[in-house]
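Section 5: illustrative case.
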């Protein structure tokens, strides 16, 4: 996955965000998040400090790099669902689809989950980072459950996000066996009865 830089005079740069994320995660796993700066990140990722700063406003932006694509996968799956499909099934399917099945990402996922759940700076930014994901699901629920108060739809979407994260943490802590998306699917099936089936 590559991300073009903002337009500047001369030749535009292209950043391999997946490689940057992997290099940063290896560094943080070995040395810790709080004690490593931009120079160490540049050395670990093979990307200059200047380029990193052009693409990322903070180190935490690198740590959370996978959430935006997950939100896009969630949005696309919800948008593509047939109107006659049960909301419970659509929501579970969309959330499971939002979890990457890319083997390279799944290999890094346990270390990433440990990092974001244990580093205070990252934990503090989690609500802001997950807000678009929650907003996307909340909007779908409000559309499919028009008589439900907006606060209830947001609370349900937040509960789904928490359950998804809990499933991923459990998967990582139990040895990261199998596909983490399947672990999320199993967890969310417990929540199916709380949404209308038709």
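Designed sequence:
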């Amino acid at each position: 996955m590559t991300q073009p830089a903002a337009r500047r005079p001369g030749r535009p740069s292209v950043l391999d965000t997946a490689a940057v994320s992997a290099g940063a995660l290896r560094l943080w796993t070995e040395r810790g998040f709080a004690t490593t700066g931009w120079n160490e990140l540049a050395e670990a990722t093979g990307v200059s400090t200047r380029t990193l700063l052009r693409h990322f406003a903070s180190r935490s932006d690198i740590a959370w790099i996978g959430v935006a694509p997950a939100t896009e996968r969630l949005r696309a799956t919800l948008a593509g669902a047939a109107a006659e499909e049960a909301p419970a099934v659509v929501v579970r399917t969309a959330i499971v689809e939002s979890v990457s099945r890319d083997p390279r990402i799944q290999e890094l996922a346990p270390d990433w989950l440990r990092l974001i759940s244990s580093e205070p700076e990252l934990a503090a930014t989690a609500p802001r980072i997950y807000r678009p994901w929650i907003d996307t699901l909340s909007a779908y629920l409000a559309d499919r459950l028009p008589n439900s108060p907006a606060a209830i739809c947001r609370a349900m979407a937040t509960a789904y996000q928490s359950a998804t994260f809990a499933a991923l943490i459990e998967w990582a802590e139990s040895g990261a066996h199998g596909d983490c998306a399947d672990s999320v699917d199993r967890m969310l099936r417990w929540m199916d009865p709380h949404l209308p089936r038709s």
